[in-house]
Amino acid sequence: MDLLNTNSRFLHDNIVLYADRLSATLPEKLCVFYFVNSGSEANDLALRLAQQYTQHEDVIVLDHAYHGHLKSLIDISPYKFRKLAGQKEWVHVAPLPDTYRGIYRENHPNPGQAYADTVKDLIEEVHRKGRKISAFFAESLPSVGGQIILPQGYSG
C-alpha cells in the first residue's frame, strides 16, 4: 500500500503492473482482477458475478455473518437481516463452524467434517426444492461471530 494507493477510476500503469505481479504468484486460472473500493463493493460484485455466471440466485451463508451495508449484502447477512426485513427464501444459513460454542465442539471426533456436512445437507435440501446454489459466502476468520478459527477439514 505504501507503493500504490489509487482509485481505479483514475487509470494508471501501476495498477496493471500490480495485477501482473500478483497474478504471477497465483495459479494460472486466477488471472483476472477486479479492483474495488471496499469490502462491501467486493462482496456485492462477487454476489452479482456468481448469480450471473450460474443463473441461480440461492446463496449459502454462515450464521452470524455480516457481509456489508449494501441492501444486497444485508439480504445475505444473518447478523443484519434477522433484525431488519428477515430472511429471504433464497438465502440458506449454515451453522457457524465454532468448536467452542457451536453444535460440534472440540471433543467431536471430526468437527470440520461435521460442519461441512451441514453445508452439504443444505445444498441437497435446496436441490430437492428444484433450486441451485449460486454462491457460498464464508469469511476465512468469521469476526462478527467472535474471531472463529475454522476447524481443520471444513474448507478442504
H-E string: HHEHHEHE
Largest sheet: 3 strands, parallel
Number of strands: 3
As an assembly, this protein is single chain
User: What order do the strands of the largest sheet run in, or round the barrel if closed?
Assistant: 2-1-3
CA(first)-CA(last) distance? 31 Å
Class from secondary-structure proportions: alpha/beta
Strand content: 5-15%
Average residue pLDDT: 91
Description:
The protein has 156 residues and is α/β, with parallel strands linked by helices. It has a domain at 55-137. It has five helices and three strands, in the order ααβααβαβ. It has helices at residues 13-23, 39-54, 71-74, 78-81, 111-128; strands at residues 58-62, 91-94, 133-137. The chain has a three-stranded parallel beta sheet with strand order 2-1-3. The chain is globular.
What is the element layout, followed by pairings?
Blueprint: H1 13-23, H2 39-54, E1 58-62, H3 71-74, H4 78-81, E2 91-94, H5 111-128, E3 133-137
Parallel strand pairs: 1-2, 1-3
